[in-house]
Amino acid sequence: MDKAIEANRELLKQCTDKITLNKKDCLPHISLAMGCIEETDIANVEKTLRAVARNHPPGPLRVVGIRIETDAARRKVSMFEVSKTERLQSLHEAVMRELAPYFSYRVTADMVLSEPAADESTLRWIRDYPEKSSSESFFPHITVGYGQITGSPSPIEFRAAQLALCHLGNHCTCRKILASAELSIQS
To answer: Which range, 2-16, 19-33, 71-85, 111-125, is most confident?
Structure first.
């Protein structure tokens, strides 16, 4: 988290008003799934997350490089690319499979925790996640922010501490943890 936040601080010198990562209300994260759920399902989702976390620990993770992409609005977005291990892929697939009964993809701007209203690109990411970003299209990464990171960091080894259901903000940021489960860091 610290490395992503540090890199984000550098990007904020280029683009000050989009994504400001921190450990409170804009968390660095790897998106394993996206969708809309009913507030009444949060407790059931948390139970499901606990079972998935117990049965699919991702093991050690590694940032292997930086990827710069251009979004639909022609803005450069910098990401830490995370190695797509079998265990991480298995965790992603389990989350998608086990949460499928709770997910809807009929997202509207008022569902996103954002002031001003969420960009259309945010809504499109959520709506299109199953078809464009899951299964074999899963690309594990940590979005660092808008702008272009210069240089290339040495590989960063880390372990994820928790699996979390977050209320998304604009730019698919994790604004608020609604439910979570501890991941085993021993495996």
So the answer is: 19-33
Closest to 97 measured CA to CA, from 162, 32, 29, 36: 32
The phi and psi torsions of 186 (rounded to 5 degrees) equal -80, -30
pTM of the prediction? 0.93
Task: Please compute, for residue 70, the number of CA atoms within 13 A of its CA located in the half-sphere on the CB side.
Answer: 2
Which residues share a beta bridge with 166? Answer: 177
Convert the pLDDT of each residue in 133-152 to its tens digit: 999 999 999 999 999 987 76
* Four-point Cα dihedral 68, 56, 181, 93, nearest 10: 50
Which residues have CB under 8 Å from 158's CB, separation 6+? 60, 61, 62, 63
State the Cα angle at 175 between 170 and 177, rounded to 5°.
Answer: 145
The domain 2-182 is placed in CATH, from the list 3.40.720.10, 3.30.200.20, 3.40.440.10, 3.90.1140.10, at 3.90.1140.10
What type of residue is 17? D
Which two three-digit tokens encode residue 94? 């389990």
pLDDT of residue 184: 81
- Give domain limits for the chain: 2-182
Q: What is the pLDDT of residue 186?
A: 63
pLDDT of residue 90: 97
Q: For residues 172 and 38, is the Cβ–Cβ distance under 8 A?
A: no
In the structure encoding, which two tokens stand for residue 161, read together?
């501490």
